[in-house]
Amino acid sequence: MTSLASSAALKAQIVPSAPAAPMPALGGHTFRQRYLLAFASQGELLNYGRTQILDGESALPGLFEKWQKLRPRVQGVLKDEAGLCDTISIEALPKELAEVAAKTESDVLFQRTFQQFPTKFAMVEVDKLVAPQRTVNLDYAARQADRFAANLSPSGLWDACGSLKREMDPIQHLEVAPNTHVFSSPNSDVRFLGAFMKNLDDEDLNYAKTGGIPVAAVIAFVGYGGSPVNGLKVGNRVVLNNGFHRVFSLRSLGVKKVPMAIQHVQNPDLEINGAIAGLPKEYLLGAPRPVLMKDFFEPDFVADLDAKERIRTVGISIGLNQHDIPA
């Protein structure tokens, strides 16, 4: 009689074992990104390579070697172009745009968006704009350039840079828990726009789904930043504050001046936060030669890479504190 051990051995010879299931892999969705490595610090470069680009560990040695070789040239640029940003050309809008600009400046949406500083439209030189950014989404910029290329007349530039409304990515919403809402968009400009007290009207009662007798409401806004391309003018320099990819796309088409809303800052120490787009305001406003828009078009200064695709999320959670305390 065959033993159990020999029977199992015989079956192993007759019935092939099932192949091992493949190991699951991390997602690999990417987009083309331009990184301005010439003006990055060593720490910035190492963190960027490690966290943002696909196969960053293998790409880092090459990026670091390029960064090191650029040091003498960058030091020369910092010396030779000191004060260049303070010579930026700011001109009046062409006559065909003056009327639409005045109408836009009187619009309540424009006034609320730019209520912190006196703001007027002007034609601004692109290359000398201070650019508080290290990266460009080349795929997104290419789509914009395709759209803008059809009309680079003054009216076309206004539609791209000055209009209060423009085509934006849809924002997705999910209620992930009671009183907790998450909004997401592939456009990193999505943001929380503030929460405010609202007096109730009859229509609002349709949203009181838990019963009770509503007396007050707090409404929270999620959306995109102000649509017009705009910059912060401090002294003689202009720091690009919104519309970076549009300006980049137009510059890639050969456009040297764009209409933009100029916010005139009188006291930057008090009126501007500590950082703009992640870079310290002391550097952007005080460095004799900060990073400029033209640097993104210097081939040796940049690296075009496959970056990890991402979306921007905004989470809003309402917390409740309810206590009985002495009157």
Task: Please work out how many helical segments DSSP would assign.
Answer: 10
The CATH class of the domain at 86-168 and 226-297, by name, is Alpha Beta
Strand order of the largest sheet: 2-3-11-9-10
Mean pLDDT: 90
CATH architecture of the domain at 86-168 and 226-297: Alpha-Beta Complex
By CATH, the superfamily of the domain at 86-168 and 226-297 comes out as: Conserved hypothetical protein from pyrococcus furiosus pfu- 392566-001, ParB domain
Query: Largest beta sheet, briefly?
Result: 5 strands, mixed
Report on this structure.
This protein is α+β, with helices and mostly antiparallel strands and 327 residues long. Among the domains are: 86-168 and 226-297, Conserved hypothetical protein from pyrococcus furiosus pfu- 392566-001, ParB domain (Alpha-Beta Complex); 172-224, no CATH class. Helices cover 31% and strands 25% of the residues. The strands form five sheets. It has a five-stranded mixed beta sheet with strand order 2-3-11-9-10. Strand 12 and strand 13 (279-280) form a beta hairpin. Helix 2 runs antiparallel to helix 3 (56-80).
